[in-house]
Amino acid sequence: LPINDIIEQIDVPLMLAMRGGTFESRDILGRTVTFIVPRACPYGYEVVLPSRGIDGGDMRIVITYKLPMLEDGSLNELSRFL
Question: Is the pTM of this model over 0.85?
């Protein structure tokens, strides 16, 4: 991994990880970054933004998400769709 690359873990909404789309966040330097989250994005998927690191390095975004807390009734209803 080049020394000028930035690696950042970013939590995206679970529904976005399932459906896919664009997501906007800020990097560790405070710059706005927009990237595409692929449909059915697996946990830990890496997006590379060329030349968005330090001094021309790349920014590597590791996509993570949190599973929502569901109550038993909601979980039963959700299981009907799976």
Answer: no
Q: Average pLDDT for consecutive 10-residue bins of the chain (82 residues)?
A: 89 92 89 94 95 90 84 64 61
Cα–Cα dist 11/7, whole Å: 13
- Structure-token match 């405070």, residue found: 30
CA dist., res. 29 & res. 11, Å (int): 17
Report yes or no: 57 and 2 within 8 Å, Cβ to Cβ. Answer: yes
Closest C-alpha among 60, 66, 64 to residue 8: 60
Pairing of strands 59-64, 6-11: parallel
Cα 40 to the center of its chain, rounded Å: 11
Sequence-ordered strand ranges (E) for the chain:
6-11, 21-26, 32-37, 46-49, 59-64
Q: In this structure, are strands 32-37 and 21-26 parallel, antiparallel, or unpaired?
A: antiparallel
